[in-house]
Each structure stands twice: as C-alpha cells, then as structure tokens.
Design brief:
mainly alpha; Arc Repressor Mutant, subunit A; two-stranded antiparallel ribbon; about 5% strand; globular
C-alpha cells in the first residue's frame, strides 16, 4: 500500500468510526487535500482491489474497511 492509499484508507476508516457511514469523494478530497475527484476514485478502487476495502456494487458511499463489522448498512 502506498502512502496516498494509506492516507485515503485512514480517512475512510476514521469516517466510519465517527459517523457510521462512508465518506463521499468530496469529503475524502477535502481531508486529503486532493484537487481531483478522479484521483480519489482511482485510489478507492485500488483499495478495493488490494482487499482492504469493500463496496456494494452500484451504490454511492458504500465503501467500507474490510475489518469493519456492519450488520446492516442500509442497502
């Protein structure tokens, strides 16, 4: 995992712990200082490929850390 991927992962993990749902791409952009939505989306996809995050297909704000246990995420 690269430094940028670790930074985005920490934002996703801390957001879930604080609010109980996934951050939007704009939330991640503001917390990491990124200026492009595509860059953040690419890093989020890489985190899913690496297996540290999961997504619900075709649902917005569904990314979550794999180690997070959620009974019902509302989908």
């Amino acid at each position: 995992m690269t430094e940028r991927q670790a930074q985005v992962y920490m934002v996703i993990d801390s957001w879930w712990k604080k609010f109980g749902f996934a951050p939007s791409i704009d939330n991640i952009m503001s917390m990491t200082g990124d200026k492009g939505r595509g860059n953040v989306a690419r890093i989020m996809n890489q985190l899913c490929i690496l297996g540290v995050c999961k997504r619900v297909p075709r649902k917005a704000r569904s990314i979550r850390p794999v180690n997070l246990r959620v009974r019902d995420i509302g989908y």
